[in-house]
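Chapter review: from sequence to fold.
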Amino acid sequence: MKQLLSIFLMAICVFSCTKEKKEVLQEATKKITPISKSDIETAVIYEANIRQYSPEGTFEEFTKDIPEIKKLGVKIIWLMPVFPISETKRKATGGADSKFASEFPKEEQSKYLGSYYAVSDFTKINPEFGTIKDFRALIKTAHKNGIYVILDWVPNHTGWDHTWLKTNSDFYTKNDKGEVIHPEDTDWTDVADLNYNNKELQEAMISDMKYWISKEGVDGFRCDVAGSVPTSFWQNAIPKLRAEKDIFMLAEAWEPELLKENLFDMGYAWDGHHLLNGLAKGEKTAEDLKNYIHKTYNERYEKDAILMNFVTNHDENSWNGTIKERMGDKAEMLTALSYIIPGMPLIYSGQEYDLNHRLKFFEKDAIPKTKGITFNLLEKLGTLKNTNAALHGGKEKAAFEILESEKDIFILKRKKGDETVLFIANFSNEKNKIGISENGVFENFLTNEKVTLHGDAFEIEASAYKIFVK
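The token string follows.
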């Protein structure tokens, strides 16, 4: 009897173990559906600064919070460069008076971690962040949560430790003396400029990019200073990358030609960002906003072009100031506007937690992790962006119409199918009266109250905004 019982228990164990192994294998091989046009229409993008996201500054700590980031309507995570950073000419401070880590006492040098954008190897992981196994866990967790992951790619230059400087010096731009130089007309002295006249360099760069798509499952790239690389390179590279799988390509650039012919999916709304700063300071008006929208989407870019709207990012925060510094009491209104105008809104690490200090760029720092007003606002705006067709911002974006653009008053109407969103803003520092030509019953999105519009003027507080949904 005991023997029969042992055999029975062993059989159960074998069955359970086999089932468990099968489930693990299925989970490991399960892949997210390739990114689609419909995903892009409703997406919010999140810029992840792994070094500063947590006190530990690791992939593992960031991965734990991916479900929280999902609550913000995020469908794309952009990881700032995850590659090893060169030690040679490693920067410790920036600007015209920049200093290198080697200029400080030896006991201090280790605290200067350098710029993420001084890459020493495009196919390796920065050990400060963890291991390749940790990176894969991040990708897997993001995919499990329905979120795509793109890598910040640095095609314009490498750090001074990159092996190409020893094995392929012709990959680099040189001066009359035959010396490799940093990018001209910049203070980026911690990096060596790449020479895109060299065809072998182009193929080596494409090969390294392909590795992350085919071997590590990333879903695309955000390409640093993409406009400084010849468009002919992107015309060569991007079709080869897309042949691997459907990917999302973001250019840190405004040039319209980069968004044509199935090259980059999205560019930076740099002019829009500067305009938002100007509106906050009273240097720009509602009429300037109207002109920007018309020029951008009716003249400068093709109808299916997508721009990334942002109130902050890693450069703006570290070098030009926090949202509060630049936008003051209009910060919330302008953040909401970045979701309502055509395009895709960006959230930068810490923005959701009311980050109000300039993150160090070359040293360790950390963002706050306490939810407050901004997390709740971004969660609501993310839901609206994800679910309301009137905010579609991709290649089949919702229609837009500016109903009012006086000096201080701005009313934008977005519409697609049966869904309508109205954005109403008072840029004045005083109360104002607004009249809307729209009629019907709407919901005040921020208060969940019903509002009946029938052409009558109503009062709106200073530096205030409203979002009405029908």
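Two observations follow directly from the output. Residues 28-397 form a domain with the TIM Barrel fold (CATH 3.20.20.80). The chain has a mean pLDDT of 93.
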